Amino acid sequence: MSIDLLIRNARIWTGDPARPWATSLAVTGGRVAGVGTEDGTEPEGDVATVVDLDGAFVVPGLHDVHNHHAVAGRTDLFECRFLPTDSLEAALDAVAAYARDLPPDGWVVGGNWGSNLLDRLSTLEAREALDAAAGGRPAMLRDDSNHNRWVSSEALRLAGIDAGTPDPAGGQIHRDPATGEPTGVLIEAGGLLVEKALAATATGSLEDDARCSERGIEILHTHGITAFQDAATSLQVLRALKHLDDTGRLKAWVVSSMPVNDVIFGSDPVGEELFAHREEVRSPHHFPDSVKIFLDGVPTSRTAAFLEPYLPDDLHGECWRGGTTMPAEDLLDVLRRTAAQGLSAKIHCTGDASVRMTLDAIATVRAEGHTDVRYHIAHGQYVHEDDVPRLAELDVVADLSPTLWFPGVILDAIKKCVPAERAERMHPNRWLLEHGTVLAGGSDWPVSVTPDVWLGIQGLVTREDPSGEFPGTLWPEQALTLEEALTVYTSASARAMGLSEHTGSLELGKSADFVVLDRDPFRTDPHELATITAQQTWFAGELVHRRH
Question: What is the C-alpha separation between 249 and 325, in angstroms, rounded?
Protein backbone atom coordinates (compact mmCIF):
# COMPACT_ATOMS: atom_id res chain seq x y z
CA MET A 1 0.00 0.00 0.00
CA SER A 2 1.21 3.49 -0.88
CA ILE A 3 0.80 5.90 2.06
CA ASP A 4 0.92 9.67 1.47
CA LEU A 5 1.05 10.53 5.17
CA LEU A 6 1.64 8.52 8.32
CA ILE A 7 0.72 10.05 11.67
CA ARG A 8 2.52 8.13 14.42
CA ASN A 9 3.31 8.25 18.11
CA ALA A 10 -0.06 9.78 19.03
CA ARG A 11 -2.92 8.99 21.39
CA ILE A 12 -5.88 8.93 19.01
CA TRP A 13 -9.53 8.87 20.01
CA THR A 14 -11.02 7.69 16.72
CA GLY A 15 -14.71 8.20 17.48
CA ASP A 16 -15.27 4.67 16.12
CA PRO A 17 -16.97 2.55 18.84
CA ALA A 18 -15.55 -0.63 17.26
CA ARG A 19 -11.94 0.53 17.74
CA PRO A 20 -11.93 3.76 19.76
CA TRP A 21 -8.18 4.06 20.39
CA ALA A 22 -5.11 4.04 18.16
CA THR A 23 -1.57 5.38 18.07
CA SER A 24 -1.13 5.88 14.31
CA LEU A 25 -3.06 6.83 11.20
CA ALA A 26 -2.30 6.35 7.50
CA VAL A 27 -3.62 8.76 4.86
CA THR A 28 -3.79 8.26 1.09
CA GLY A 29 -5.55 10.57 -1.33
CA GLY A 30 -6.95 12.61 1.54
CA ARG A 31 -8.72 9.58 3.03
CA VAL A 32 -7.95 7.30 5.96
CA ALA A 33 -6.07 4.35 4.49
CA GLY A 34 -5.21 2.59 7.75
CA VAL A 35 -5.63 2.90 11.50
CA GLY A 36 -3.00 1.53 13.82
CA THR A 37 -3.72 -0.31 17.01
CA GLU A 38 -3.76 0.92 20.58
CA ASP A 39 -0.62 -1.11 21.35
CA GLY A 40 1.46 0.59 18.67
CA THR A 41 1.14 -1.55 15.53
CA GLU A 42 1.23 0.76 12.49
CA PRO A 43 -0.30 0.45 9.01
CA GLU A 44 2.27 -0.89 6.58
CA GLY A 45 3.23 0.46 3.18
CA ASP A 46 5.50 2.81 1.27
CA VAL A 47 5.30 6.07 3.23
CA ALA A 48 5.94 9.43 1.60
CA THR A 49 5.70 11.64 4.71
CA VAL A 50 5.88 10.79 8.42
CA VAL A 51 4.65 13.11 11.16
CA ASP A 52 5.67 12.11 14.68
CA LEU A 53 3.36 13.75 17.22
CA ASP A 54 5.43 12.85 20.26
CA GLY A 55 2.47 11.47 22.21
CA ALA A 56 0.02 14.28 21.44
CA PHE A 57 -3.73 13.69 21.71
CA VAL A 58 -5.76 13.49 18.46
CA VAL A 59 -9.51 13.60 17.86
CA PRO A 60 -11.52 13.52 14.61
CA GLY A 61 -12.23 16.86 13.00
CA LEU A 62 -14.80 18.70 15.10
CA HIS A 63 -18.18 19.76 13.76
CA ASP A 64 -20.53 22.71 14.19
CA VAL A 65 -24.11 22.00 13.08
CA HIS A 66 -25.33 25.57 13.49
CA ASN A 67 -23.38 28.67 12.59
CA HIS A 68 -23.41 31.65 10.25
CA HIS A 69 -19.84 31.36 9.07
CA ALA A 70 -19.93 34.00 6.32
CA VAL A 71 -21.63 36.53 8.58
CA ALA A 72 -18.90 35.83 11.14
CA GLY A 73 -16.20 36.20 8.51
CA ARG A 74 -17.63 39.53 7.37
CA THR A 75 -17.89 40.66 10.99
CA ASP A 76 -14.25 39.80 11.62
CA LEU A 77 -13.05 41.55 8.47
CA PHE A 78 -15.23 44.63 8.35
CA GLU A 79 -17.53 45.29 11.33
CA CYS A 80 -17.53 46.96 14.74
CA ARG A 81 -17.19 44.38 17.50
CA PHE A 82 -17.83 44.36 21.22
CA LEU A 83 -18.97 41.75 23.74
CA PRO A 84 -22.47 41.00 25.06
CA THR A 85 -21.00 41.35 28.54
CA ASP A 86 -19.76 44.89 27.80
CA SER A 87 -21.47 47.86 29.41
CA LEU A 88 -23.41 50.36 27.31
CA GLU A 89 -20.56 52.82 27.77
CA ALA A 90 -18.02 50.31 26.48
CA ALA A 91 -20.20 49.56 23.46
CA LEU A 92 -20.51 53.26 22.65
CA ASP A 93 -16.75 53.67 22.96
CA ALA A 94 -16.30 50.83 20.43
CA VAL A 95 -18.75 52.52 18.06
CA ALA A 96 -16.95 55.86 18.34
CA ALA A 97 -13.55 54.28 17.68
CA TYR A 98 -14.88 52.40 14.65
CA ALA A 99 -16.74 55.43 13.25
CA ARG A 100 -13.61 57.61 13.23
CA ASP A 101 -12.29 55.74 10.19
CA LEU A 102 -15.53 55.90 8.20
CA PRO A 103 -16.64 58.45 5.60
CA PRO A 104 -19.49 60.76 6.69
CA ASP A 105 -22.15 58.49 5.14
CA GLY A 106 -20.47 55.19 6.11
CA TRP A 107 -22.50 52.66 8.09
CA VAL A 108 -21.50 51.48 11.55
CA VAL A 109 -22.52 47.81 11.59
CA GLY A 110 -21.69 45.28 14.27
CA GLY A 111 -22.46 44.05 17.77
CA ASN A 112 -23.29 42.23 19.89
CA TRP A 113 -25.08 44.04 22.71
CA GLY A 114 -26.34 42.00 25.63
CA SER A 115 -30.05 41.20 25.97
CA ASN A 116 -29.90 42.52 29.52
CA LEU A 117 -29.45 46.05 28.05
CA LEU A 118 -32.78 45.98 26.20
CA ASP A 119 -34.71 48.22 28.59
CA ARG A 120 -31.87 50.72 28.85
CA LEU A 121 -31.54 51.01 25.07
CA SER A 122 -35.27 51.58 24.58
CA THR A 123 -35.08 55.32 25.25
CA LEU A 124 -34.57 58.44 23.16
CA GLU A 125 -31.60 59.31 25.38
CA ALA A 126 -29.85 56.07 24.42
CA ARG A 127 -30.56 56.74 20.72
CA GLU A 128 -29.02 60.20 21.06
CA ALA A 129 -25.94 58.66 22.69
CA LEU A 130 -25.62 56.26 19.74
CA ASP A 131 -26.02 59.17 17.30
CA ALA A 132 -23.18 61.00 19.02
CA ALA A 133 -20.89 57.97 19.09
CA ALA A 134 -21.53 57.29 15.40
CA GLY A 135 -20.95 60.93 14.50
CA GLY A 136 -24.40 61.23 12.94
CA ARG A 137 -23.80 58.23 10.68
CA PRO A 138 -26.24 55.38 10.12
CA ALA A 139 -25.57 52.66 12.71
CA MET A 140 -27.09 49.20 13.12
CA LEU A 141 -26.00 47.04 16.05
CA ARG A 142 -27.23 43.48 16.60
CA ASP A 143 -28.03 41.95 19.98
CA ASP A 144 -26.66 38.69 21.38
CA SER A 145 -29.42 36.69 19.70
CA ASN A 146 -28.99 38.44 16.32
CA HIS A 147 -32.78 38.74 16.26
CA ASN A 148 -33.01 42.35 17.43
CA ARG A 149 -31.40 45.64 16.36
CA TRP A 150 -30.43 48.94 17.95
CA VAL A 151 -30.08 51.65 15.33
CA SER A 152 -29.27 55.34 15.08
CA SER A 153 -31.49 58.21 13.97
CA GLU A 154 -29.85 58.33 10.53
CA ALA A 155 -30.44 54.59 10.04
CA LEU A 156 -34.10 55.10 10.94
CA ARG A 157 -34.32 57.95 8.42
CA LEU A 158 -32.74 55.93 5.61
CA ALA A 159 -35.09 53.03 6.37
CA GLY A 160 -38.11 55.34 6.35
CA ILE A 161 -39.07 54.56 9.95
CA ASP A 162 -40.72 57.34 11.93
CA ALA A 163 -43.50 57.83 14.48
CA GLY A 164 -46.12 56.99 11.88
CA THR A 165 -44.56 53.71 10.75
CA PRO A 166 -46.70 50.75 11.88
CA ASP A 167 -45.17 47.70 13.50
CA PRO A 168 -44.45 45.13 10.77
CA ALA A 169 -45.90 41.63 10.93
CA GLY A 170 -43.71 39.58 13.22
CA GLY A 171 -41.86 42.55 14.65
CA GLN A 172 -41.97 45.59 16.90
CA ILE A 173 -40.67 49.15 16.77
CA HIS A 174 -40.01 50.30 20.33
CA ARG A 175 -41.32 53.82 20.84
CA ASP A 176 -41.02 56.59 23.37
CA PRO A 177 -44.28 56.46 25.41
CA ALA A 178 -44.64 60.25 25.47
CA THR A 179 -43.94 61.13 21.82
CA GLY A 180 -44.35 57.87 19.87
CA GLU A 181 -40.90 58.42 18.33
CA PRO A 182 -38.91 55.24 17.59
CA THR A 183 -36.23 54.70 20.23
CA GLY A 184 -33.99 52.83 17.81
CA VAL A 185 -34.71 49.37 19.27
CA LEU A 186 -36.23 47.11 16.62
CA ILE A 187 -37.48 43.64 17.56
CA GLU A 188 -37.39 40.71 15.11
CA ALA A 189 -38.93 41.78 11.76
CA GLY A 190 -38.87 45.38 12.99
CA GLY A 191 -35.26 45.50 11.83
CA LEU A 192 -35.85 44.33 8.26
CA LEU A 193 -36.33 47.83 6.81
CA VAL A 194 -32.94 48.86 8.19
CA GLU A 195 -31.32 45.64 6.93
CA LYS A 196 -32.69 46.41 3.48
CA ALA A 197 -31.47 49.99 3.62
CA LEU A 198 -28.01 48.68 4.47
CA ALA A 199 -28.16 46.04 1.72
CA ALA A 200 -28.94 48.76 -0.83
CA THR A 201 -25.47 50.19 -0.23
CA ALA A 202 -23.64 46.90 -0.84
CA THR A 203 -21.11 46.91 -3.68
CA GLY A 204 -19.33 43.58 -3.08
CA SER A 205 -18.31 41.05 -5.73
CA LEU A 206 -18.41 37.23 -5.76
CA GLU A 207 -14.79 37.21 -4.66
CA ASP A 208 -15.60 39.60 -1.79
CA ASP A 209 -18.34 37.23 -0.62
CA ALA A 210 -15.98 34.28 -1.01
CA ARG A 211 -13.35 36.02 1.11
CA CYS A 212 -15.88 36.52 3.93
CA SER A 213 -16.81 32.85 3.77
CA GLU A 214 -13.16 31.81 3.59
CA ARG A 215 -12.30 33.98 6.59
CA GLY A 216 -15.07 32.37 8.60
CA ILE A 217 -13.68 28.92 7.76
CA GLU A 218 -10.15 30.01 8.67
CA ILE A 219 -11.41 30.95 12.12
CA LEU A 220 -13.28 27.64 12.42
CA HIS A 221 -10.03 25.84 11.62
CA THR A 222 -8.31 27.52 14.58
CA HIS A 223 -10.82 25.67 16.78
CA GLY A 224 -10.40 22.33 15.03
CA ILE A 225 -13.67 22.53 13.07
CA THR A 226 -13.64 20.82 9.68
CA ALA A 227 -17.37 20.37 8.98
CA PHE A 228 -20.33 22.63 9.63
CA GLN A 229 -23.89 23.52 8.69
CA ASP A 230 -24.58 27.14 7.87
CA ALA A 231 -27.96 27.83 9.44
CA ALA A 232 -29.37 30.48 7.08
CA THR A 233 -27.49 30.58 3.79
CA SER A 234 -28.22 33.37 1.34
CA LEU A 235 -27.80 33.02 -2.42
CA GLN A 236 -24.64 35.14 -2.22
CA VAL A 237 -23.09 32.74 0.29
CA LEU A 238 -24.23 29.66 -1.66
CA ARG A 239 -22.43 31.01 -4.70
CA ALA A 240 -19.39 31.98 -2.65
CA LEU A 241 -19.05 28.43 -1.30
CA LYS A 242 -19.29 26.99 -4.81
CA HIS A 243 -16.66 29.49 -5.98
CA LEU A 244 -14.34 28.49 -3.14
CA ASP A 245 -14.65 24.80 -4.01
CA ASP A 246 -14.20 25.45 -7.73
CA THR A 247 -10.94 27.28 -6.96
CA GLY A 248 -9.66 24.64 -4.52
CA ARG A 249 -10.13 26.84 -1.44
CA LEU A 250 -13.05 25.18 0.38
CA LYS A 251 -11.28 23.29 3.17
CA ALA A 252 -14.32 21.98 5.02
CA TRP A 253 -17.45 19.90 4.56
CA VAL A 254 -20.37 22.34 4.37
CA VAL A 255 -24.13 21.80 4.48
CA SER A 256 -26.25 24.85 3.69
CA SER A 257 -29.69 25.64 5.10
CA MET A 258 -31.62 27.85 2.67
CA PRO A 259 -34.19 30.11 4.35
CA VAL A 260 -37.86 29.39 3.79
CA ASN A 261 -38.69 32.65 5.56
CA ASP A 262 -36.53 35.39 6.99
CA VAL A 263 -37.63 37.67 9.80
CA ILE A 264 -34.20 38.96 10.83
CA PHE A 265 -31.56 39.00 8.07
CA GLY A 266 -33.45 40.49 5.13
CA SER A 267 -32.23 37.81 2.70
CA ASP A 268 -33.56 37.87 -0.85
CA PRO A 269 -34.52 35.54 -2.44
CA VAL A 270 -35.93 33.00 0.03
CA GLY A 271 -38.13 29.93 -0.37
CA GLU A 272 -38.72 28.22 -3.69
CA GLU A 273 -36.96 30.99 -5.65
CA LEU A 274 -33.81 30.28 -3.63
CA PHE A 275 -34.19 26.48 -3.75
CA ALA A 276 -34.17 26.67 -7.55
CA HIS A 277 -30.41 27.42 -7.40
CA ARG A 278 -29.68 24.24 -5.43
CA GLU A 279 -27.91 22.24 -8.14
CA GLU A 280 -26.16 25.32 -9.55
CA VAL A 281 -24.22 25.77 -6.28
CA ARG A 282 -23.57 22.11 -5.38
CA SER A 283 -19.92 21.02 -5.31
CA PRO A 284 -17.84 18.13 -3.90
CA HIS A 285 -17.62 19.69 -0.43
CA HIS A 286 -20.82 21.77 -0.43
CA PHE A 287 -24.26 20.24 0.04
CA PRO A 288 -27.23 22.66 -0.32
CA ASP A 289 -29.62 20.01 1.00
CA SER A 290 -31.43 21.70 3.86
CA VAL A 291 -33.85 24.55 4.47
CA LYS A 292 -34.16 26.88 7.45
CA ILE A 293 -37.48 27.80 9.02
CA PHE A 294 -37.70 30.58 11.60
CA LEU A 295 -40.72 29.42 13.62
CA ASP A 296 -40.43 31.75 16.60
CA GLY A 297 -38.12 34.36 18.08
CA VAL A 298 -36.22 34.41 21.38
CA PRO A 299 -37.36 34.44 25.01
CA THR A 300 -35.40 37.60 25.84
CA SER A 301 -37.70 39.72 23.65
CA ARG A 302 -40.81 37.64 24.49
CA THR A 303 -41.00 36.38 20.91
CA ALA A 304 -40.43 32.69 21.66
CA ALA A 305 -43.66 30.67 21.66
CA PHE A 306 -44.38 29.09 25.08
CA LEU A 307 -47.12 26.82 26.39
CA GLU A 308 -47.28 28.82 29.63
CA PRO A 309 -47.32 32.63 29.92
CA TYR A 310 -44.38 34.95 30.32
CA LEU A 311 -44.11 37.12 33.40
CA PRO A 312 -46.54 40.07 33.13
CA ASP A 313 -45.34 43.36 31.68
CA ASP A 314 -46.93 46.61 30.52
CA LEU A 315 -46.63 45.83 26.81
CA HIS A 316 -47.91 42.24 26.73
CA GLY A 317 -50.13 41.93 29.80
CA GLU A 318 -50.55 38.85 31.99
CA CYS A 319 -51.30 36.02 29.55
CA TRP A 320 -48.71 36.53 26.80
CA ARG A 321 -47.23 33.28 25.49
CA GLY A 322 -45.44 34.61 22.41
CA GLY A 323 -46.29 33.29 18.98
CA THR A 324 -45.04 31.55 15.88
CA THR A 325 -44.19 33.08 12.51
CA MET A 326 -46.77 30.88 10.78
CA PRO A 327 -49.79 28.77 11.74
CA ALA A 328 -49.47 25.01 12.14
CA GLU A 329 -51.07 24.26 8.77
CA ASP A 330 -48.52 26.46 6.97
CA LEU A 331 -45.61 24.75 8.72
CA LEU A 332 -46.98 21.36 7.69
CA ASP A 333 -47.36 22.56 4.11
CA VAL A 334 -43.74 23.75 4.02
CA LEU A 335 -42.44 20.45 5.41
CA ARG A 336 -44.48 18.47 2.92
CA ARG A 337 -43.27 20.54 -0.04
CA THR A 338 -39.60 20.47 0.96
CA ALA A 339 -39.65 16.77 1.86
CA ALA A 340 -41.01 16.03 -1.62
CA GLN A 341 -37.85 17.71 -2.97
CA GLY A 342 -35.58 15.68 -0.68
CA LEU A 343 -34.78 18.73 1.41
CA SER A 344 -34.07 18.38 5.11
CA ALA A 345 -35.12 21.15 7.49
CA LYS A 346 -33.58 23.04 10.39
CA ILE A 347 -36.39 24.65 12.37
CA HIS A 348 -35.65 27.47 14.81
CA CYS A 349 -37.65 26.83 18.00
CA THR A 350 -36.77 28.42 21.32
CA GLY A 351 -40.05 27.96 23.17
CA ASP A 352 -41.76 24.70 24.09
CA ALA A 353 -44.92 25.58 22.12
CA SER A 354 -42.98 25.95 18.87
CA VAL A 355 -41.17 22.68 19.60
CA ARG A 356 -44.50 20.92 20.02
CA MET A 357 -45.91 22.44 16.82
CA THR A 358 -42.82 21.24 14.95
CA LEU A 359 -43.03 17.70 16.34
CA ASP A 360 -46.71 17.51 15.44
CA ALA A 361 -45.96 18.55 11.84
CA ILE A 362 -43.04 16.13 11.52
CA ALA A 363 -45.19 13.28 12.88
CA THR A 364 -47.62 13.86 10.01
CA VAL A 365 -44.87 14.05 7.39
CA ARG A 366 -43.25 10.87 8.71
CA ALA A 367 -46.60 9.06 8.66
CA GLU A 368 -46.99 10.10 5.01
CA GLY A 369 -43.81 8.21 4.13
CA HIS A 370 -40.99 10.78 4.34
CA THR A 371 -38.79 8.72 6.64
CA ASP A 372 -35.37 9.64 5.22
CA VAL A 373 -35.55 13.43 5.50
CA ARG A 374 -33.45 14.90 8.34
CA TYR A 375 -35.08 17.31 10.75
CA HIS A 376 -33.30 19.49 13.30
CA ILE A 377 -34.96 21.38 16.12
CA ALA A 378 -32.55 24.29 16.33
CA HIS A 379 -31.84 25.61 19.83
CA GLY A 380 -34.92 24.01 21.43
CA GLN A 381 -33.83 25.16 24.88
CA TYR A 382 -37.28 24.47 26.26
CA VAL A 383 -38.89 21.10 25.56
CA HIS A 384 -41.95 20.06 27.54
CA GLU A 385 -41.35 16.84 29.45
CA ASP A 386 -44.14 15.11 27.51
CA ASP A 387 -42.36 15.92 24.24
CA VAL A 388 -38.88 14.73 25.22
CA PRO A 389 -39.35 11.12 24.00
CA ARG A 390 -40.95 12.30 20.76
CA LEU A 391 -37.69 13.60 19.27
CA ALA A 392 -36.22 10.10 19.23
CA GLU A 393 -39.49 8.51 18.15
CA LEU A 394 -39.64 10.85 15.14
CA ASP A 395 -35.88 10.75 14.43
CA VAL A 396 -35.50 14.47 15.09
CA VAL A 397 -32.06 15.90 15.90
CA ALA A 398 -31.61 18.21 18.88
CA ASP A 399 -29.37 21.00 17.54
CA LEU A 400 -27.68 22.29 20.71
CA SER A 401 -25.95 25.63 21.18
CA PRO A 402 -24.36 25.19 24.62
CA THR A 403 -22.49 28.49 24.64
CA LEU A 404 -25.85 30.28 24.51
CA TRP A 405 -27.51 28.55 27.43
CA PHE A 406 -25.13 27.95 30.30
CA PRO A 407 -25.29 30.65 33.00
CA GLY A 408 -24.64 34.06 31.42
CA VAL A 409 -26.23 37.27 30.16
CA ILE A 410 -28.83 35.46 28.05
CA LEU A 411 -30.09 33.30 30.93
CA ASP A 412 -30.18 36.36 33.18
CA ALA A 413 -32.26 38.19 30.57
CA ILE A 414 -34.62 35.21 30.18
CA LYS A 415 -35.24 35.23 33.95
CA LYS A 416 -36.62 38.76 33.57
CA CYS A 417 -39.25 37.38 31.19
CA VAL A 418 -39.93 33.83 32.37
CA PRO A 419 -40.39 32.53 35.95
CA ALA A 420 -36.99 31.40 37.26
CA GLU A 421 -38.03 27.81 37.91
CA ARG A 422 -39.06 27.49 34.26
CA ALA A 423 -36.15 29.54 32.90
CA GLU A 424 -33.60 27.22 34.49
CA ARG A 425 -35.12 24.00 33.15
CA MET A 426 -33.24 24.49 29.91
CA HIS A 427 -31.87 21.80 27.57
CA PRO A 428 -32.86 18.37 28.96
CA ASN A 429 -29.84 16.79 27.28
CA ARG A 430 -29.52 13.71 29.52
CA TRP A 431 -33.20 12.89 29.12
CA LEU A 432 -32.99 13.33 25.33
CA LEU A 433 -29.90 11.14 25.07
CA GLU A 434 -31.39 8.39 27.23
CA HIS A 435 -34.42 8.27 24.95
CA GLY A 436 -32.12 7.84 21.93
CA THR A 437 -32.20 11.34 20.45
CA VAL A 438 -29.25 12.41 18.31
CA LEU A 439 -27.63 15.40 20.02
CA ALA A 440 -25.57 17.57 17.68
CA GLY A 441 -23.35 20.46 18.68
CA GLY A 442 -23.62 23.95 17.25
CA SER A 443 -22.39 27.39 18.23
CA ASP A 444 -24.74 29.82 16.41
CA TRP A 445 -21.57 31.88 15.93
CA PRO A 446 -21.36 34.89 15.63
CA VAL A 447 -24.44 35.04 17.87
CA SER A 448 -22.04 33.37 20.29
CA VAL A 449 -18.78 35.24 20.67
CA THR A 450 -16.72 32.25 19.51
CA PRO A 451 -17.29 28.88 17.82
CA ASP A 452 -14.87 27.24 20.29
CA VAL A 453 -16.14 23.67 20.70
CA TRP A 454 -14.43 23.20 24.06
CA LEU A 455 -16.54 25.91 25.66
CA GLY A 456 -19.58 23.93 24.57
CA ILE A 457 -18.12 20.61 25.75
CA GLN A 458 -17.33 22.00 29.19
CA GLY A 459 -20.84 23.45 29.40
CA LEU A 460 -22.38 20.10 28.45
CA VAL A 461 -20.31 18.28 31.06
CA THR A 462 -20.48 20.75 33.97
CA ARG A 463 -23.66 22.77 33.20
CA GLU A 464 -21.71 25.79 34.45
CA ASP A 465 -20.28 28.94 32.88
CA PRO A 466 -16.77 27.98 31.70
CA SER A 467 -15.49 31.53 32.27
CA GLY A 468 -16.52 31.46 35.92
CA GLU A 469 -17.99 34.94 35.52
CA PHE A 470 -21.56 33.80 36.10
CA PRO A 471 -22.18 31.55 39.13
CA GLY A 472 -24.46 28.57 39.43
CA THR A 473 -25.09 25.18 37.88
CA LEU A 474 -27.97 24.90 35.45
CA TRP A 475 -30.08 21.75 35.96
CA PRO A 476 -27.03 19.54 36.77
CA GLU A 477 -28.99 16.31 36.37
CA GLN A 478 -28.86 16.89 32.60
CA ALA A 479 -25.04 16.79 32.36
CA LEU A 480 -23.25 14.57 29.82
CA THR A 481 -20.02 12.62 30.14
CA LEU A 482 -16.93 13.80 28.27
CA GLU A 483 -17.15 10.98 25.73
CA GLU A 484 -20.82 11.75 25.12
CA ALA A 485 -20.01 15.44 24.66
CA LEU A 486 -17.18 14.64 22.22
CA THR A 487 -19.58 12.46 20.25
CA VAL A 488 -22.01 15.39 20.09
CA TYR A 489 -19.36 17.36 18.19
CA THR A 490 -18.09 14.53 15.96
CA SER A 491 -19.97 11.42 14.77
CA ALA A 492 -23.40 12.54 16.03
CA SER A 493 -23.08 15.87 14.22
CA ALA A 494 -21.89 14.11 11.05
CA ARG A 495 -25.00 11.94 11.19
CA ALA A 496 -27.18 14.99 11.79
CA MET A 497 -25.75 16.74 8.72
CA GLY A 498 -25.86 13.66 6.49
CA LEU A 499 -22.07 13.52 6.28
CA SER A 500 -21.38 10.20 7.99
CA GLU A 501 -19.97 8.59 4.85
CA HIS A 502 -17.37 11.35 4.64
CA THR A 503 -16.42 12.35 8.16
CA GLY A 504 -17.19 12.22 11.90
CA SER A 505 -14.76 9.47 12.88
CA LEU A 506 -11.34 8.20 11.86
CA GLU A 507 -12.28 5.05 9.98
CA LEU A 508 -11.10 3.47 6.74
CA GLY A 509 -12.26 5.40 3.70
CA LYS A 510 -13.38 8.52 5.51
CA SER A 511 -11.82 11.93 5.01
CA ALA A 512 -8.59 12.37 6.99
CA ASP A 513 -9.96 15.20 9.13
CA PHE A 514 -8.38 15.38 12.57
CA VAL A 515 -7.22 17.75 15.28
CA VAL A 516 -4.05 17.65 17.38
CA LEU A 517 -4.87 18.98 20.86
CA ASP A 518 -2.58 20.57 23.40
CA ARG A 519 -3.55 17.96 26.02
CA ASP A 520 -5.59 14.83 26.72
CA PRO A 521 -9.16 15.89 27.58
CA PHE A 522 -9.76 12.61 29.40
CA ARG A 523 -6.98 13.55 31.83
CA THR A 524 -8.13 17.16 32.19
CA ASP A 525 -10.20 18.55 35.05
CA PRO A 526 -13.75 18.99 33.66
CA HIS A 527 -13.65 22.63 34.79
CA GLU A 528 -10.55 23.19 32.59
CA LEU A 529 -11.86 21.66 29.35
CA ALA A 530 -12.58 25.07 27.85
CA THR A 531 -8.86 25.92 27.93
CA ILE A 532 -7.98 23.08 25.52
CA THR A 533 -6.70 24.36 22.17
CA ALA A 534 -6.22 22.98 18.67
CA GLN A 535 -2.49 22.87 17.97
CA GLN A 536 -3.02 21.54 14.44
CA THR A 537 -6.09 21.04 12.25
CA TRP A 538 -5.98 18.72 9.25
CA PHE A 539 -8.61 18.51 6.51
CA ALA A 540 -8.46 15.68 3.96
CA GLY A 541 -4.86 15.03 4.97
CA GLU A 542 -3.85 18.67 4.52
CA LEU A 543 -2.60 20.83 7.39
CA VAL A 544 -4.97 23.83 7.41
CA HIS A 545 -4.08 25.32 10.81
CA ARG A 546 -1.01 25.30 13.04
CA ARG A 547 -0.99 27.17 16.33
CA HIS A 548 2.10 29.34 16.69
Answer: 37
